[in-house]
Design a protein that fits this description.
By secondary structure, the protein is mainly beta. It has three helices and 35 strands. It has a domain of 146 residues.
Length: 408
């Protein structure tokens, strides 16, 4: 609750509902930064001998779930109680309550939900949400829940219900969330809580109402190679969580990163730029907390802070923040900060380009009773995907502040 009280005292920290469409000012970055491959890890590969359940919007839930006879809904695939090691393979299309989905969808332990990993699932859209009772945050509305060892890859996930969360992970271990798009949820794209351990790799977070990712409880793991663009706040890290945030682009959001409570995050090689408020803000909790690792003489931070509208780094914790080897303008920092800037310009990480997925269809696809001829999932990029505007950012319009945590 200390995270809640602290955040209530900070004006306009989190916006409820979809934010205004912001535009990019990447040209200023391109003049001084040269993108380079950071070698982000790839998602875990599943053995070809694993069981695969095929799902396609024009299938039938009475089918066998094979490539030739796919099921129509992810719900029907889950009702088969897939065992550990099973892959649920989704074909292109929209998966909603109108097409037979029953939310929230719960991915069992060790099961892989896979769409198209080559384009962050922009043509495979799961949209909706349902009631979930969280052990740590009581009643919520979520689209997807991941269990131990679950892998979520290559889908677009959205929850437009009031205070809607796309993916909720509660005290689940070794969860992999890779090559997805999280967009247009009214609250968060991904919410980690309890004793969760998760790796969140090469995803796009765009146009979510509150945060791209919230990390709470004692959650740990790695957040690497993601793009946070026009998504409320990129990351909200609090309570006793301890994640590594590495090689992400956190650009053109309302705010970049907010850190609070007793959390101990580590930041390495991120680009944090063009956010309308602070690039990084560290809130006050208690003496010596939170503890933020922005680099040491033995392990440089190598984060790039640039063109954030209020401050690049705002340390409101009351404790000196050590930031060794980061590129930032000392005149655009606030609070007690020991900032050591490298002699040579740093290189920005390469992450997925922020592309808005196609809108879910308002009509229900007609089931096809004939066996399908498709033998393997498509891996081509949808040509109708909409690229975001990259013109200079516009002025932020007023919004009603809300707390970053869900209601109890």
């Amino acid at each position: 609750m200390s995270f809640l009280r602290t955040s209530l005292g900070l004006t306009l920290i989190f916006a409820f509902g979809a934010p205004q469409i912001l535009t990019s000012n990447t040209s200023a970055i391109a003049q001084t930064l040269t993108p380079a491959n950071t070698g982000s890890p790839t998602p875990t590969l599943i053995s070809q001998t694993s069981n695969i359940i095929f799902v396609a919007p024009n299938g039938l839930d009475t089918n066998l779930g094979t490539a030739a006879q796919p099921l129509r809904s992810l719900t029907a695939a889950l009702q088969k109680k897939p065992a550990k090691g099973t892959i649920i393979q989704l074909s292109a299309g929209n998966y909603t309550a109108e097409t037979g989905e029953q939310f929230p969808l719960k991915i069992p332990a060790g099961v892989t939900l896979r769409g198209n990993t080559l384009n962050q699932g922009k043509d495979i859209i799961i949209s909706g949400g349902g009631r979930f009772i969280s052990p740590t945050f009581a009643r919520q509305n979520i689209a997807l829940l991941a269990a131990d060892g679950a892998i979520i890859e290559g889908i677009t996930l959205t929850n437009s219900n009031p205070r809607g969360y796309a993916l909720w992970v509660e005290s689940a271990q070794n969860v992999t969330i890779a090559n997805n798009t999280f967009t247009k949820s009214t609250h968060d794209g991904v919410f980690l809580t309890g004793t969760t351990t998760a790796n969140i790799l090469s995803n796009i977070f765009i146009q979510n109402g509150a945060n791209g990712i919230s990390v709470l409880g004692t959650s740990s793991g790695q957040i690497q190679g993601n793009t946070f663009y026009n998504t409320g706040f990129g990351l909200a890290i609090g309570q006793k969580s301890q994640v590594l945030v590495q090689s992400n682009r956190i650009i053109n959001n309302r705010g970049g990163i907010v850190v609070s409570n007793l959390s101990t995050p580590t930041f390495r090689s991120n680009l944090i730029a063009n956010n309308l408020e602070n690039g990084l803000v560290v809130l006050k909790d208690r003496k010596g907390q939170p503890t933020v690792d922005l680099g040491t003489t033995a392990n440089l931070g190598q984060n790039i802070f640039q063109n954030n509208k209020q401050f690049d780094i705002n340390n409101a914790s009351g404790v000196k923040l050590i930031a060794i080897g980061n590129q930032a303008d000392p005149k655009r920092t606030q609070g007690a900060i020991e900032l050591v800037v490298p002699k040579s310009p740093l290189i920005a990480p390469v992450t997925p380009e922020p592309v808005i997925p196609i809108e879910p269809s308002k009509t229900t696809p007609k089931p096809n009773s004939k066996p399908q001829t498709q033998t393997k999932p498509t891996s081509t990029t949808n040509p109708t995907s909409q690229k975001v505007n990259t013109q200079p950012a516009t002025k932020l319009s007023p919004v009603k502040p809300v707390t970053p945590l869900p209601k109890r």
